[in-house]
Structure formats: structure tokens, C-alpha cells
Amino acid sequence: MGVTAMKRNILCILLLFGIVVCMTGCNINNIFKTEEEKNDEKCQQIIMAIENHDADALKGLFSETALHETSDFSEGCDYLFSEYHGTVESIKRTRYSSNTHYESGKHAREIDCEYEITTSEETYFLYFNDWESNTIDPEKEGLYSVKMVTLEIKDNTENFDPGSRNKRAGIYYPAWDE
Hints:
By secondary structure, the chain is an alpha+beta fold. It is built from seven helices and five strands; from the N terminus they run H-H-H-H-H-H-E-E-E-E-H-E. Strands 1-2-3-4-5 form a five-stranded mixed sheet. The termini are far apart. This is DUF5104 domain-containing protein. It holds the Pfam family DUF5104. InterPro entries: DUF5104 (IPR031344).
């Protein structure tokens, strides 16, 4: 192999690398994040929006589909903001599962996560359903459902549904139980 051919190969590799970086929003770190790291990051975004009482930031995490399917998003936000007390001290992932669907060269990745959130005043259970990526139906990409209650409520409720059995678009609040 001549020097010219080697230079051409190196140039092609660099060009391909540049294209990959640009296609990922120029954020190379996102390529190398594990599924767990992505889930933890999403959890932190949810908690930050709740602590800041930022309904717009929370709404921005949800998919177009979820926002279209829910009629009580603001009630869920109000419930979260009124029930969450203190500032976060620890976030512990307690469970997660994922399903990936493939169809005609496209894919959809659905995640169910559960966390234990400890604040300076209370400990909470957090569940969320997230379509991490979806090239089959892009409007579904983003959060679909969020449920947060105190750990005491979770532990003392018979047949507690974390949210994964009866998925509902939006943010949980007690009227969902009626």
C-alpha cells in the first residue's frame, strides 16, 4: 500500500468519524453512555424540574404522543410540586427494564425505571416510562409516564402499582386511583 492510499484511508476514517459526531448532535459523550447512565441522567432532569417547580422543563421531557394523550398534565405537575419536599441528597436506581423493537430497519427503545429518591426531608419512589429512541414513531420519543409518591405510601399500599402495570400518559396524581 502506497503512502497516497494510506493517507486516503486515514482521511476517510476521519471523515466518517466527523459525520458520526455531527449526527449525534456533536456530543460524542452520548455515543459512549451506558443505558443506565442515560436513565440516571433522565431521572436527574425530572428531579431538577420538580425541585425548581419548572412545569415547562418537565413538559419538555415528555413525548408529543404523551402530551396529546393526557388531559391532566397540569394537575400532575401541581401534585408533584406540592408533594415533593426538600433538596435531593441521593438517587438510587432500584429497577429498570428495556425493550427494543425492530421494524424495517427502524427501531424503538422503551425503558421502565424505578428509583428511590432521598431528599433532606423525605424519601420518594419514582417510576418513569421513557421511549429513549424511536425511529418507527418519532412522536413517541420521550417520557410517557411519571409517578412519584413517598416511599411510605408505596410500602403501605396493598397491590401498589408502580406505574408499569397500568401505563397512563402524563404525571400521576391521586385522581388516577379513582
